[in-house]
User: Fold this.
Amino acid sequence: MEDWTSETIDFLSYPDETLLDMSITAREAREQKVLTLSVIEEAIRSAWSRLVGGVEIDLTRGQFTDGETIGRPTVAPRPPVAPPAAQRSTTCSAAGSSKLCEDAGMQTIRTPEDRFRDLPDFGYEPHHAEVSDGEGGRLRMAWVEAGPAAGPVVLCLHGEPSWSFLYRKLMPVLAAAGLRAVCPDLVGFGRSDKPSRLEDHSYARHVAWVRELAFDVLELRQVTMVGQDWGGLIGLRLAAEHPERFARLVPANTGLPTGDHPMPEVWQEFRAAIQSAPRLDIGRFVQAGCRSRLAPGVLAGYDAPFPDDSYTAGARAMPGLVPTRPDDPASDANRAAWARLGQLSFPALVAFSDSDPITGPMAPILRRHLPGARHRDHPVIANAGHFLQEDAGEVLGGHIVDFVRTTA
Assistant:
């Protein structure tokens, strides 16, 4: 097996000068009206200035210092939701409510269903099932589907801080080709229950929750896994630990970090800012990872699962769960998974975008390490950022359809 660690240290240890080379230019930033995250504020002001080529940005006002506005478009606010009381069991409350229950298990809250009405191009009927919370209680997970029930399964796993809404452009493409697209919401996101404490979230729990839903509840087999961001961190673990359930892999703007090499300083600052910001603007965060300008209704769709900051424990916790030290709780499992993936021969399509400076360098490493990815043409999705499903979902969907057909 090839030594990937020397490549990974290059990927994770870029000096600031290299980040400048990898990032967009100031001119491109102006043309795209790139949005910064209000939550980052002072913590990464200087880092963002480096990334956009020295252009200073007023993060609190959403402007370049020359006055050009890059702020978020106005979105009609949804009706306010009173902060809910935490609940201890999803079986104790009616749909959409969040009353306190006495049963065992972690405390969770659930986004009211009326928050998900009238979302653009996302009229799919939600499905729900319960999984173990790991503390003696149950959590409700949600998913949407499209395509024939007997069709080849494509399991679409989203990342931080999005939800299955991210896959709305892929789902009709997959369904039209006779594939069954299954798109869950991770625990803490979308319509799935949201543990109210940061410490309720762990890498191992998120892997276990998706495993139980996909394999025990839905009994999925011969799965084509599409994983982006945290969807890949979870999906690649599952493929390594349960290879008998998988037929193909499509890692997209993702990786499998082990913590053996330091993350870039700008990422460390970003993680600290996300964890400490008084309020998270989820839609603006997604916009910052896209090349295209998102419509107000789309931004509202990403905001929908989070009526207020009490719902955002998962979004705050996830950056802190990425292994950054060799002794991280997830490091041993990820090392073992990486080694196992290097031995598995099912077909793999590495479908990365051309404009994601953080995960982009992982693409050649995955192409070389996954046996099923070697000697295969891999697409580079043009004009797409970190959230390539949002920028070029139909294009990505077409590549997945072709991949499944040619490897059937």
Observations:
- Residues 1-83, 88-103 have pLDDT under 50 and may be disordered.
- Residues 122-406 form a domain with the Rossmann fold fold (CATH 3.40.50.1820).
